[in-house]
Every structure is written in structure tokens, then in C-alpha cells.
Design brief:
The protein contains 22 helices and three strands. This is PCI domain-containing protein.
Length: 422
Amino acid sequence: MQAVLACFQLKQNNERLIDFIGYNTKRVANRLTDTTDEKLLNFVHNTQLLKDEWASSATHTAELFRLAQEQLKSLNRIAEWEPDWIVYPLYMCALQLFKIAEALDRSAEASSQTAKPGDLKQEGYLTQCGRTIHMSLNLCLKDRDPSATNKRYGAYYFALLLFKAYHKLRAHGLITNMVKVLESRSKELPSVQSAFGNRRAFTVTYCYYLGRYYACRKSDYAKGFHWLNMALMDCHTSYKNQQRQILVFLIPIAFLTNRWYPRNHVLNKCDPAKAGIDYRPIKTALLQGNLALLDQQLEHQQLPLLTRDLYLPFSHLRPYVILRLVKLVWKHNHSNWKLPTALIATAIAFASKNSTTTTTAATSSDKSPANDVDADLLDRTECLIANLINKGFVKGYLSHGNRVLVVSKTEPFPRLVRKNAI
């Protein structure tokens, strides 16, 4: 116990303190006799009660959660006046609370299957856990110590736990609020890498969650790619499962940001049986301009895409498939700078119904003159083409009166695919 007291007196963290915090470690018999600090005595008392509860029950109970919550709150009160050394012990308390809450919520979910109609649903343990950990986050953010020993870097540690908790709760609004707070304080906070130091696993996990947020919730694919790519670069090559989790999100975001097609060795790392999503047919649809195949995959993989919040990013792939079709029609039309809208409309209609290689759409489209194509279909096709022009995918303009797409003679289709690829 004196070794624990020495940590607070010398302002240094060590393994004895971390071991003392754990609820499943042996109870320390000695009492604190060299201090009258009520906050410290309260923390020690709560920790000892936590250990006693685990020793008597040997399982996760509501009382164990309550005591772990009290332990974190009591250490929060101590940490308010401590420098940066307290951050990691505080994080270990919060992590312990998170794991207990996670286990209790799993048990509650299993027992809820036998609940009777009309029973009131109780607030989840993860929800309560999130509120308590958020206090630790605020405590670090509000540290106004100008010296290098302030606790502000600790905000990343507790944000990491809150990312995990909020994702399990599907509390996207809370994630948005937290990220906004971190963004507003970005000038006061150190970089993610310097905050986590040599704890690379922390850096990888934080960048992964932040990349998911920007890409899937805000449709900011540039920021999403930045953070997901950072997570992949920092992830050790031996951690295959973690790499696969990152690539599930990075593959579509890399295409939407930099137009990078995934190479085969990257796709091999994303085994559909383990990743839950099969990217090979989607890549084929993009290369062939196969709208039917893309729509088929969006429908077939709808549940895993929705579960991972990837449905919206995948729906944004559609303009690239249409662009591929327009290129095919343009080439079949002998690269003429005047391209009848009817040819494109016919190719799109064909590709939307047929799942075979869509090159045949372009070869058959010359048999459909403009006056044989429905005017409504032509209008919808012009809207699609106008969208491509607006995005900078096509250089040219539409002549609505003549129902013709006039493209640039020098560079009708600006190069979108960069040299690099994942």
C-alpha cells in the first residue's frame, strides 16, 4: 500500500498502482497511515470494496459496476489537481469500467429474449459508463496548465473508449458531438501520434474510428482516407484481423478520394467470409460499367453495408460506373466529339437490365436513333451526364435542343485514376 501512496506523493505512475486498480487482483491488506488526504482515502476505500465484491461474486454484477464507477469518479476528483502522470491510471480505471459495462450489457441482451411484453427497458450499463468516462474526457480538456505536464493529451485516451462505447450503442449523435469538441480544441491538443507515444495499438484504433466517422457519417472522404490510411500504416503487418477491419473501409474510400482500384493482393486480405463484404464483383462493375452488377451487389450485400454504415459511400460509386459506360459509347462512336444522348441512354438502359459484360451495350446502341428513345429517358440521361460534367469527370457541354453531348476534342475525360493504389 505504501508503494501506491508513493505514486501520488512522487507524481509517478508504476505497475504497482496499475495492479492495485484492477478489480481482479489481490486485495492489499495494509492501510494508509501516512496521509490524511480524504480524496485519496476514498479512492483506496472504493478500490478495496471493488476487489471484495469480485472476490465474493467472481462474476460481473451490478454492484461490481457501481463500485467501478465510484472508483473512477473518486480518481477523477484526485486527477483534477494532478499533472499528466495521472492520465494512464485514470485510463485504466475507465477501461475497467468499460469492460464491466460491456459484459453486463451482453448478459442483459441475452436475458431480454425472455422478457415479457410491457416490461420497462432499463438504461444500459454502457450508456452509464459513457457518461462517467466523459467526465474524464472533460477533465483533460479543461486543464489550463500551460506547462508541458498538462493532461490535455489524455483527451485522446478517453475519446478512444467513448468511440468504442458509442459505436456499440449506435449513438452517432454523441460521436458527432465529441468529435466537434475535439476539433474545436485541436490547436490546444498535441498530435495523435505524440499523445499515444509508443502505444501504436491506441493510435491505430483511434485513427480507425475517426476515419470511419468522417467517411461514413459525414461523407468527408478526404479526411476519412487520411485517418484510415494512417491507421493502416501504423498497424503491424502481423495483425491480420485489424488490417482487414481497416481495409473494409479504406478500399471504397480510397477509390472515392483518389480513384484507386484495389490490387488483387489487397482484395485477398479482405476474405469475404471474414470481412463480411465482397469487393471483387464491385470492382468488376466499376471496370466494366456494369450497372446491373452494381445494383445487384448493393441489394445482395445491403445488410453488411448498412451494419457498417457503408451503404451511402457505396451508392456514391454509381456515377463512376455511368462514366465508364459513357467512355465505352464514346469509343464505339469512333471518339467523335459529338455524342448523341440517345446512344448513352440506350447503353445505360441496357446495362441496368443486363448483368453480362456491358461492352455489348455500346455496340448495340447505334441501332437506336434518337427519335426511338423515350423523351423522359433522354431527360434522365441528360441529368446523369450533367452530374458527370459538374463533378469534372467529363469535359464538355450538353445541347438539349439537339440532344447531343459535345465533349472536348483534346481531353474529353480527365484522368481520374492516380498512379498509386492500395
